């Protein structure tokens, strides 16, 4: 798998139709993991580009592709309570999936982990999962849409679901992060 895939929006589409405007680099504290609840990266990107869409994200990732929907320094409509300070990535999958089903999507997990590792390096985000209490307290790190909802009580989404292999995903993020640091120090 090549992880240097260019971020892109399908040629027939524009970027996500909605956002809340610009933000400063200093406001970025979180990486927020979501599941798309079906579709491919291309089909979900197409949905986010519609005026009728009531959500947006930074990246949509599947086994084969990654699409950028809004720039990092634009506030998405991803998860109320973590939009202003979060970088959001949608993994093509289902919140109902078991751990085994998620782990069977190794290319999606690898691609998303690589993108998240780049964010962690670029924005100095700690490679650790936050508890709901830490999220509420304003700590920096990784979280999920369901934990954002638990912390800020502004939504009902439960993605990426209880079967999401957060430990395995964070191990991949740390592996890619080490590679990025190693490459930068050569």
Question: What this model shows, in words?
Answer:
- The chain has six helices and five strands, in the order E-H-E-E-E-H-H-H-E-H-H.
- By secondary structure, the protein is α/β, with parallel strands linked by helices.
- It has one domain (25-184): Peptidoglycan recognition protein-like (Lysozyme-like).
- Helix 3 crosses helix 6 (166-184).
In short:
It is built from six helices and five strands; from the N terminus they run βαβββαααβαα. The chain has 186 residues and is an alpha/beta fold.
Quaternary: single chain
By helix and strand content, what is the structural category?
alpha/beta
Helix content: 25-40%
**Any idea what the radius of gyration is?**
15 Å
Task: Give the uncertain stretches in residue-range form.
Answer: 1-7
Give me the CATH superfamily. Answer: Peptidoglycan recognition protein-like
Strand tally is 5
Provide the CATH topology.
Lysozyme-like
Kindly report the spatial arrangement of strands forming the biggest sheet: 3-2-4-1-5
Termini separation comes to: 23 Å
Features:
single chain, 186 residues, alpha/beta, Lysozyme-like, 5-stranded mixed sheet, 6 helices, 5 strands, 34% helix
Q: How are the SSEs ordered, and which strands pair?
A:
Layout lengths: L29 E6 L5 H8 L10 E3 L4 E3 L17 E6 L7 H5 L2 H18 L8 H5 L4 E4 H8 L13 H19 L2
Helix pairs in contact: 3-6
């Amino acid at each position: 798998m090549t992880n240097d895939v260019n971020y892109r929006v399908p040629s027939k589409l524009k970027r996500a139709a909605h956002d809340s405007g610009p933000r400063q680099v200093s406001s970025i504290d979180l990486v927020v993991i979501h599941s798309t609840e079906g579709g491919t990266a291309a089909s979900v990107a197409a949905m986010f580009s519609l005026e009728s869409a009531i959500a947006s994200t930074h990246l949509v990732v599947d086994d084969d592709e990654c699409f950028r929907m809004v720039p990092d320094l634009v506030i998405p409509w991803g998860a109320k309570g973590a939009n202003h300070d979060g970088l959001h990535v949608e993994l093509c999958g289902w919140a109902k999936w078991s751990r085994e089903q998620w782990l069977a999507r190794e290319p999606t997990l690898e691609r998303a982990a690589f993108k998240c590792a780049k964010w962690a390096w670029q924005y100095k985000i700690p490679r650790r999962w936050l508890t709901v209490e830490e999220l509420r307290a304003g700590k920096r790190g990784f979280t999920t849409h369901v934990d954002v909802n638990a912390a800020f009580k502004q939504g009902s989404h439960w993605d990426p679901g209880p079967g999401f292999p957060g430990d395995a995903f964070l191990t991949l993020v740390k592996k890619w992060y080490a590679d990025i640091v190693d490459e930068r120090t050569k």
